[in-house]
Amino acid sequence: MLNTLLTELERKGEQNDRQQSSKEQRYLNITRDTGEFLRVLVKATGARRVLEVGTSNGYSALWLASSLPPGGQLTTIELLPAKAEEAQRHFERAGLAGCITLLQGEAGALLAALPAGFDLIFLDADRARYVAMLDELLRLLRPGGLLVCDNAVSHRQELEAFVAALNARDGLSLSLVPVGKGELLVHKGE
Ligand SMILES: C[S@@+](CC[C@H](N)C(=O)[O-])C[C@H]1O[C@@H](n2cnc3c(N)ncnc32)[C@H](O)[C@@H]1O
């Protein structure tokens, strides 16, 4: 059931993104191997509270939510109402709506209203805003938690200022993993 939906979204994403020139109309999903990598990270870290910034049509959220232990919860944020509605339909179809809270709106504003204590945060939205979001992201991530940032190889230059800001902070450990479009792992020290 879940795998059928994931495969369907992979085909749809590939076809749609080839045809659409506007960024807003594209899904820009993570690759399947990134989904598998996120699954390993959620399971291996025992993450129970996961936050995603940049839902699109819900493809990566399906990987994250389906990897949670019983009682685990994913909060995911999407700016565009049409994409948020489409994602919600996919969560319901996968039987995962009960463990996903989808917030529609601008991440910068929504992050400030969330309580801290996330075990894992997956960042896959507007890269130009990551530096401005950094304080909030680090407040939300629990000590010992993991921040994962997509596109760290595919858009390395766009992320330079963000990586420099991370490197300037005490207590963070960084590692770039060449899976999919490149996943930057950031561990927040205890
Ligand atoms: C790369 S796509 C996310 C793909 C998704 N993680 C997946 O793999 O299925 C980025 C998404 O972030 C959303 N986005 C961009 N800026 C945002 C912001 N400031 N707040 C919330 N969402 C934002 C876009 O509308 C877009 O749907």
From TrEMBL:
Q: Name one Pfam family in it.
A: Methyltransf_3
Which domain of life, per UniProt? Bacteria
Gene3D superfamilies, per the entry: Vaccinia Virus protein VP39 (3.40.50.150)
For this UniProt record, give its keywords in alphabetical order, as a comma-separated list.
Methyltransferase, S-adenosyl-L-methionine, Transferase
Which biological processes are named by the entry's GO terms? Answer: methylation
MF terms in GO: O-methyltransferase activity
Q: Which PROSITE patterns match?
A: SAM_OMT_I (PS51682)
Q: Which PANTHER family match?
A: PUTATIVE (AFU_ORTHOLOGUE AFUA_6G01830)-RELATED
- Protein name, UniProt field: Methyltransferase
Species the sequence originates in: Zobellella endophytica
